[in-house]
Amino acid sequence: MFVISCAFIGLFLFVVGVSGNGLCIFVFLRDKFRHRIITPYFIVLLFADSIYLLFRLTKLFYYSQTLFYLKADSNDSCSDTFLARAYQHATQNWPQTLVPLLHSETYMRFSLILMCIMTVQRTTFITRSLKRLVLPSAFSDIHKHKWTFLFIMLAFVIAYIFEFAGLTLFCSKSTNRDLSFEWFMYMTKHMENSTHLLTNTMLDRPSKFKCVTYVLKSLQEHNQSSKIHYNNKICTEEEFMNILSFYFDQHQKSTVNLIGRILYNISGVRITRNEIRRKYHFHECLFPQNPKFFHQHYDFMYSRNVGFNRHTLILGKIISLAFETANPRSGFKDFLSDQTREMNV
After folding, report:
1. I need a surface site. Which of 31, 37, 168, 289 has the fewest CB within 10 A?
2. Is the dihedral of CA 303, 305, 306, 312 positive or negative?
3. Which residues does 88 contact at the CB level (< 8 Å), separation at least 6?
4. What is the Cα–Cα distance from 46 to 56, expressed in whole angstroms?
């Protein structure tokens, strides 16, 4: 019943969110606006916005253990809805080349690029018209729309390339064993109430669970000393390190939340689940890096100010510059206002 409620709530939010887009699309398809040069841009932008909303809602259910207050022993979750399970199957089983199509960021970036192209093209068209003092008649509507469709395809290809590069360009060759050990030691000393989040993931592996619980008891008996006294009959140091690196690399929500808590207690900065997966978990990429090197230079590789990844602001700055160049006096908002007034004439 709870899963059904989540599905209906998600469907309701999506319908409410895209209803305005649907009405706008019907308006642009009227005879008065159908042959305008900017009409295909706005229709595609409205569809992209609807797709963005769909994947945002899907990820909201997929990553949230629950959206409502439930009893502590409840196993109900909105992530069990059909759409969330389909999203999980696609992201984990589809080829990497198709995964960017499932990310809402792709469509957001596509919208920004397309708006930039639309602004430049429309400004060029108006400038040529003013120079001739008449609307240019050298090109037919079909010719103009042909270039419009080509620009739309180009914008989507650019957005896809940026998203694909951000997902698969740089990564760590393997998990950082030393870092996993540091997390474990910090957790046992300063976050004793959180150790169960790690050990509960090992209940189906008795030998590994026994090894970790033994180390925890050993640390407690020796007053949280940094030196661990291993018992080779239970597990060796190498086995223990392998267990930590394996379980801290799991993509389960409980593991990701545990890493987030540890990092927050250490630095006081909250890190998103997606960034934890990208920075600390192993995944396939085009240029695998040594674990220590990758973590040391991660902030540069995935900088939000400079760098070639899906979070870079280089493209955003280029778009902003293009807007200012195209409309140096009035800005983009005034430009849209002018377009609206022109349509109403």
Report:
1. 31
2. positive
3. 62, 79
4. 15
Region of 133 on the Ramachandran plot (φ > 0 left; ψ -120 to 50 alpha; else beta): left
pTM given for the model: 0.58
**Parallel, antiparallel or unpaired: strands 287-289 and 170-172:** parallel
Angle at Cα 25 formed by Cα 22 and Cα 27, nearest 5°? 115
76, amino acid identity: D
Query: Measured between alpha carbons, how far is 213 from 227 in angstroms, rounded to an integer?
Result: 16
Q: Look-up: residue for tokens 């642009």?
A: 28
Taking alpha carbons only, the member of 151, 52, 148 closest to residue 109 is 52
Query: Tokens 């969330």 appear where?
Result: 84
- Residues pairing with 170 in the sheet: 287
Q: Name the residue with tokens 């976050």.
A: 191
The tens-digit pLDDT sequence of the chain (345 residues) is 656 777 778 888 888 989 999 999 999 888 888 878 788 899 999 999 999 999 888 887 776 654 444 554 455 667 677 777 888 778 767 877 888 888 888 899 899 999 988 888 888 877 777 766 555 544 444 446 678 888 999 999 998 988 887 666 777 877 788 888 888 888 888 887 788 888 888 888 888 888 888 888 888 777 656 677 777 778 888 888 888 888 888 877 778 888 888 988 888 888 877 778 778 877 667 777 888 888 887 777 776 555 555 444 444 444 444 444 444 444 434 444 444 444 443
Q: Specify the residue for token string 């206002």.
A: 337
* Distance from C-alpha of 46 to C-alpha of 24, rounded to nearest angstrom: 8
Nearest to 201 by CA among 259, 244, 254: 254
CA distances 248 to 181, 205, 206, 256, Å, are 10, 15, 17, 8
Residue with tokens 């690029």: 113
CA distance 20 to 18: 5
**Tokens 């999506």 identify what position?**
14
